[in-house]
Amino acid sequence: MTGTGIGASVKRVEDQRFLTGNGNYTDDINRPGQSHAWILRSPHAHATLKSVDTSKAEKADGVIAIFTGADMAADEIGGLPCGWQIHNKDGSPMLEPGHPPLAHEKVRYVGDQVAIVIAATRDAARDAAELIEIDYGVLPAVIDMDSALAGGTLVHDDVPNNRCFDWEIGEKDAVDEAFAAADHVVSIDLVNNRLIPNAMEPRAAISDFDRSTSQYTLFTTSQNPHVIRLLMGAFVLQIPEHKLRVVAPDVGGGFGSKIFHYAEEAILTWAAAKVHQPIKWTAERSESFATDAHGRDHESHAELALDKSGKFLGLRVATKANVGAYLSTFGSSVPTYLYATLLAGVYTTPAIYAEVQTVFTNTVPVDAYRGAGRPECTYLLERLVTKAAREVGIDPVELRKMNMIQPDQYPYQTPVALMYDCGDSPATFASALKASDYAGFEKRRAAAEKSGKLRGIGISTYVEACGIAPSAVAGALGARAGLYESAQVRVHPTGSVTVYTGTHNHGQGHETTFAQLVSESFGIPIDQIEISHGDTDQVQFGMGTYGSRSLAVGGPAILNACNKVIDKAKKIAAHIMEADVSDIEFADGKFTVAGTDKEMAFGEISLAAYVPHNYPIEEIEPGLDENAFYDPLNFSFPGGAHICEVEVDPETGDSEIISFTAVDDVGRVVNPMIVEGQVHGGLAQGVGQAMLEGCVYDDNGQLLTGSYMDYTMPRADDLPNFSVATQSVMGASNPLEVKGVGEVGAIGSPPAVVNAILDALAPLGVEDISMPATPLKVWQAIQESSVRQAAE
Amino acid sequence: MPTVSMTVNGKSVSAEVEPRTLLVQYLRESLGMTGTHVGCDTSQCGACVVHVNGESLKSCTMLAAQAEGADVTTIEGLANGDELHPMQEAFRENHGLQCGFCTPGMVMSALDLVQKNSDPSEQEVREWLEGNLCRCTGYHNIVKSILAGAQALKG
Ligand code: FES
Ligand code: FES
Question: Distance (Å) from the C-alpha of residue B152 to the closest C-alpha of chain A?
Answer without folding.
Answer: 17
